[in-house]
Amino acid sequence: MGGISTQNILHNNLDGYYDGKKLSASMERYLEQWGQTEPSQNEFYTSFSYYPLKGLEYEEGVSRRDPSTIIKIKDTYYVYYTRSSKTVAPVGYKKATKTVPANTWDLCDIYYATSKDGINWEEQGVSVSRGPEGSFDDRSVFTPDILQYEGKYYLYYQAVSYPYTERSKNVIGMSWSESPDGPWHRFDTPVLKPGKPGKFVESSTKRAHIESYGDFDSHKVHDPNLIVRNSEIWMYYKAHPMGVGSEHPMPKGVGLKKPYPNFSMGLAIAKNPKGPFIKHPINPVSASGHEALVWPYKDGVATMITANGPEKNTIQWAEDGINFEVKSHIILPPDAAGLFCEDKYTNTSNGQGFTWGISHITQSKSKPWAYMIRFQCDLSQKIDDLKHKRENIRFDEHSRLNSTRRR
Ligand code: AAL
């Protein structure tokens, strides 16, 4: 065809679009912050697709949840996760006993499974179990992440002691091994503890009844998620202050002058995997999110912020790994994801991202036990997967009618 090329038509139209126009606030933002005609032009945007996993699917009486980062040793993938033994269904904090769990992460141990293809998994057994009676981890160990570093393996996980009540403090414990199959050497003290405490009202047993809040992580340090950066071990974690959680709306007053987030993300850095982990002075590094999830991306750090807070359902990035900016909005992100991200621990300064991982489906009325599934996406520099760059994702009747507040 002679005459004008498609390219010229496009450019002419674009010029026309802006000619002499005053821009609205949204258009200013669009040009300054987003600047994309197609979602595929935003490397931080992805949609997610989900697939069943063989060997880690739903099982009556067994909860499998909170998968770790997935590592690959030779031709074998490894994932670590929270697992309850065949037991009765959880009954809540008030009715829980020495043998009856409060929730699906109570009375659990860390198990692991292996796979050759990332889809068919074989549960191998326990990696780390609860500590001896009277220890900081005698009630439950759960929500692990695995760090592979200088030929050794380090499992970081949440831990609680008996009795487990809504006021129990959560800490992060660690065990290490020469091999991904164990045996694991358990540290008998936590590697990370809650920060400066507030004060609970003594005449009550409720988590929400406090006289003071304390630091942003005065109650719980949760969901350790690790990267190696600047030759150091960077542990991001979810934090809760004392005084929130069990009652909504939050109690008013108590000298509170500014709002603060119930869910936030902290960062603690160590020179070596055994610690000491030093909390970053500008914590919390995110005022939103659940289940901390980070990966090295280009010369900075990316994070997926899900489920809670004003910036939920976004992907953010920080050149310094500390001051995150919103880079995309996502829907239906994986819950409690564990990533297969090959350079998470290589101290890279050009992180490549990832395309898949494992997430969990939490318990529901019809399926009272948590189980795990696989997800695919495109948050990788290497590939350009247009299927996972689509927008306009809608939900069918089944998803809508079954959607509810997660537990
Ligand atoms: C999850 C995580 C932590 C909590 C519980 C189990 O979503 O945030 O692991 O303790 O729920």
Short summary:
It contains three helices and 23 strands. The protein is mainly beta. A hairpin with a 2-residue loop joins strand 3 (71-73) and strand 4 (76-84).
Account of the protein in words:
This protein has 407 residues and is mainly beta. Strand 18 and strand 19 form a beta hairpin. Helix content is 7%, strand content 35%. Among the domains are: 36 residues, no CATH class; 88 residues, no CATH class. The strands form five sheets. Strands 1, 17, 18, 19, 20, 21, 22 and 23 form an eight-stranded antiparallel β-sheet that branches. Strands 2, 3, 4, 5 and 6 form a five-stranded antiparallel β-sheet that branches. The site of 3,6-anhydro-alpha-L-galactopyranose has 11 residues, from strand 7 and strand 13.
* Bound ligands: 3,6-anhydro-alpha-L-galactopyranose
Main β sheet profile: 8 strands, antiparallel
Order of helices and strands: HHEEEEEEEEEEEEEEEEEEEEEEEH
- Mean pLDDT equals 92
Number of strands: 23
How many separate helices? 3
Report the radius of gyration as a whole number of Å: 23 Å
**Quaternary status of these chains?**
single chain
Segments where pLDDT lies below 50 for 5+ residues? 1-9
Task: Report the end-to-end length measured between terminal Cα atoms.
Answer: 61 Å
Strand percent estimate? 35-45%
Spatial shape: globular
SS-based class? mainly beta
Which bin fits the share of residues in helices?
A: under 10%
